[in-house]
Structure prediction request, 266 residues.
Amino acid sequence: MNGVSPAGVDQDGHDAVLQANGLALGYGRRVILNDVTLAIRPGEFWFLLGPNGEGKTTFLRTVLGLMRPLAGQLWRHPDLKDRTHVGFVPQRCDLNPTLPTTLREFVRLGLVGMRRPREDRAKRLTWALARTGLGGLAEQDYWSLSGGQRQRALIARALVRRPRVLVLDEPTNGLDLEAEDTALRCLAELNRQERHTVLFVTHNIALAARYATHVACFHAGRVVAGPCQTVLQREILSRIYGVGVEIAADPSGAVAVRVSPRKAPS
Prediction:
């Protein structure tokens, strides 16, 4: 699925932002992922799914340039070799909770290392807060915000760099349903209106079914990747999770994931 060529162009002739060709990833002699081949194009919304320990974070670390492949090739668009064009949103805030910090100051941390005129920095900050629905809270203490607002602040901190690619590592863990929905609608709007390429790691199959354009499923050292409707099939999901998994959507866009035990062989 999702075949690629060696020159940053996929099999259909479209430019790629990232592409993996026969990629092997791991630590020392321990191989975590093998023969990963996929192409990620501008404006796509990718969800990375799979059980714990299957290599999702390892893949992200390689995308971010923190690890080198054991074999194969991970090609990045030349713009992405400058890390200012990649935004990263971790699971949790890495700020010392004893440090008094306004939301404005927190989001401004995303500009560290970027040499930009003061006026441009101010515009970027205003834009990032507005795009995440936090524009009216700029002077509020970061630690007084709700969990959902703090998670959107992490997204704003990544967006302030105006990245081409936004990478999120299980950003909705621990959020209630309303906060999770607000964060995902924010990301979907950014993806649709600003054409950000998004890579989103999660265990939530329903979120992927609702928002993804493309999905990569990690299991047993392999990755099955492609358009959402192609990958989120009962046969593929059941093989990965070890139980029967079926996705149903109603006309309103609501998604239900039904799980049933796999039948024992007779």
About this structure: The CA atoms of residues 196 and 202 lie 18 Å apart.
